[in-house]
Each structure stands twice: as structure tokens, then as C-alpha cells.
């Protein structure tokens, strides 16, 4: 496909303002435009669209560079977060010593190879050793690693290792099931495939009965 360049007259026109945006849903302008990367992201997005032959001055594209910048800033925001920020002191002393499992946690991420989405659900379990964490923190921990340029294998392992480091439990199990747009929209174009990855630490790795219990609970309520 030939690249259509802007005419000399177009290049002489001032670039559309890519540093200002409008409120989009629950995310206000102030939370995004204050970041140090939004302006260069918007400028890069404008150059990308122009290189593709698009007219940045037509109505539908006038605000697209800054919308792209805001979206990418949000979708990769996990790279600026830490586990400590997310857990935020929500670790409590508790004698409970059986499995804690939060399953079917939806997530969205960006594949680092093609910068296309992959999405699905994760199941996170641990065996407490005197400490438990607030249940809502497990989905938040997942988002820390999902909201960045990522691969599913690394995402799975990072979540498991972060939980292990934060709680020092007797074991951690993480399973991730996802569909990848890089396999659906391009390449092999397979629409119904699912990629499954797992990370097992401690007793979940060493004890087959415990591992099977985890898998059985994850599958409960499914048709297959």
C-alpha cells in the first residue's frame, strides 16, 4: 500500500492543537494532560495518522491525536504503579489457612508485539500463612500488570510473584484465559481460540490434590 503524504500546502498549515482535550467519561482532562507523556504521544499520533494518508483537518480526526494519547496513557498506566500503591496497607493478620480464590476477574491488556488488545479473565488464589489481603486488591493487582504493553505469559507470572512477595503465603496459583486480537484481526484470523496460562508457586506447585482443587473451583459453573 502506497503511503500518501501531505501536500506542501498542508505541511505549511499549523498542526492541529494536540495538547488540549475534552472530558471523556469518568476520566477528566486534568488527570491526563498533567502527565509528562501526553503531549509527545499526541504529536506522535498526529504524525502516524498523517503518514497513513489521513487528513487531520477533517471533522472526525481533529481531536483523534489527543484521544489516542489519553487512551494510551490510561491503557499503559500500570507501568507507573507499584504493588505497594495498590495494596495500600490492606494486608491483615488472620488465622484463616484455607484457599482464598477470586475467579473470573475480567481484564484488558495490550500485546507488546502488535499493540493490539488481548482480553479475558483471570483466576487468582493463595494459601494464607497468617496474612490475608482485601479481596478487591486482587483485581487491582491484576490491573497493575495488565495495563501496560504485555504478553500473557509474563502477565500471569508477574501477578503470581507479586502476590507471593506481598503476602509470603504458603502458595499462589494464577490462571489467565484470554483472546488475542493479533490472532483474530490479522495473521491466522482465528476467532474462537483461547490462550490459557498458569503460574503455580509453593504448595500449589508441589501438591497435586491442592492444584486439582483450584482447577475444580475455577471450572465450577461452566458448561464445559
In brief:
This protein is an alpha+beta fold and 224 residues long.
Describe this structure in words.
- The chain contains 10 helices and 7 strands.
- The protein starts with 7 loop residues before the first helix and ends in a 5-residue tail after the last helix.
- By secondary structure, the chain is an alpha+beta fold.
- The longest helix is centred in the last third of the chain and has 16 residues, at 152-167.
- Mean pLDDT is 86; it is low at 1-34.
- The strands form 2 sheets. It has a 5-stranded mixed β-sheet, sandwiched between helices.
- The chain folds into 2 domains: 8-75, no CATH class; 80-219, GTP Cyclohydrolase I, domain 2 (2-Layer Sandwich), CATH 3.30.1130.
- It is elongated, with a radius of gyration of 22 Å.
Amino acid at each position: 500500500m502506497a503511503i500518501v503524504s501531505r501536500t506542501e500546502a498542508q505541511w505549511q498549515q499549523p498542526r492541529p492543537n494536540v495538547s488540549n482535550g475534552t472530558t471523556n467519561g469518568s476520566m477528566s482532562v486534568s488527570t491526563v494532560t498533567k502527565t509528562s507523556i501526553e503531549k509527545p504521544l499526541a504529536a506522535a499520533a498526529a504524525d502516524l495518522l498523517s503518514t497513513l494518508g489521513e487528513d487531520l483537518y477533517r471533522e472526525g480526526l481533529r481531536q483523534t491525536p489527543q484521544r489516542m494519547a489519553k487512551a494510551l496513557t490510561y491503557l499503559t498506566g500500570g507501568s507507573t504503579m507499584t504493588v505497594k500503591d495498590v495494596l495500600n496497607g490492606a494486608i491483615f493478620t488472620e488465622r484463616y489457612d484455607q484457599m482464598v480464590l477470586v475467579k473470573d476477574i475480567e481484564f484488558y491488556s495490550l500485546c507488546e508485539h502488535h499493540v493490539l488488545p488481548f482480553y479475558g479473565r483471570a483466576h487468582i488464589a493463595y494459601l494464607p500463612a497468617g496474612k490475608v489481603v482485601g479481596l478487591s486488591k486482587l483485581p487491582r493487582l491484576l490491573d497493575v500488570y495488565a495495563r501496560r504493553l504485555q504478553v500473557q505469559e509474563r502477565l500471569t507470572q508477574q501477578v503470581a510473584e507479586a502476590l507471593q512477595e506481598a503476602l509470603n503465603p504458603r502458595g499462589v496459583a494464577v490462571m489467565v484465559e484470554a483472546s488475542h486480537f493479533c490472532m483474530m484481526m490479522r495473521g491466522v484470523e482465528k476467532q474462537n481460540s483461547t490462550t490459557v496460562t498458569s503460574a503455580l508457586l509453593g504448595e500449589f506447585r508441589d501438591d497435586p490434590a491442592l492444584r486439582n482443587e483450584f482447577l475444580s473451583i475455577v471450572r465450577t459453573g461452566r458448561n464445559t
